[in-house]
Amino acid sequence: MVLLIYCALVDKVKLRQKLLQQRKSMLVSEWQHKSERIAEHLQASSLFTGAKTVLAYFSFRQEPDLSSLFVDNNYIWGFPRCVGKSLHWHQVTGSDSIAKGSYAIMEPNTDSPQIYPEEVDLILVPTVACDYQGYRLGSGGGYYDRLLSSPLWQGKTTIGIVFDFAYLSKLPIEPWDIRLSGICTEIGLHMN
Fold first, then answer.
1. Complete DSSP assignment for 67-132
2. CA-based, 20 to 30 A from 47: which of 75, 141, 161, 189?
3. What residues make up the domain containing 169?
4. What pTM was computed for the model?
């Protein structure tokens, strides 16, 4: 069992490196176009239109950019701050309430209003890759795995955001990996 977990972790590291390199090599115009398509698919989804409080992320290392959605004032937008090994969620209402934080990722200032689990309708989860079963390969820090496995966050609707080249038939998974409700690529929204 330990050997299987070790092999899966090694496979994840290699796969993560390969996919991050592929994402990094995208032309800016291609990245922007595919990001816009993802945003359009989300906007057409009843999961999105029926939500009031949506947790999202600020694009980092050419993750799909959802910032075109954030101007819609019909939603309360929450973004993560890394605090120790946890994610804390805060409402952001303008660019003056964000700054570079942990890992040089944009995050809300500490004085931004906090968002609590019971307020959240939808979580847009950044991923390096996802598979057809709804499992994700993240950046390797375990922040979202810890968050989504917490009893306070279980049962929330989660959509993994990924470019289609990283939407794979199967990923190596661990016992602690949490299955997402759906995956959105530039091709469309796939529910699990």
1. GGGTT-TTSEEEEEEEETTEEEEEE--SGGGEEE-GGG-EEE-TTSPEE-GGG-SEEEEE-SEEET
2. 141
3. 2-191
4. 0.90
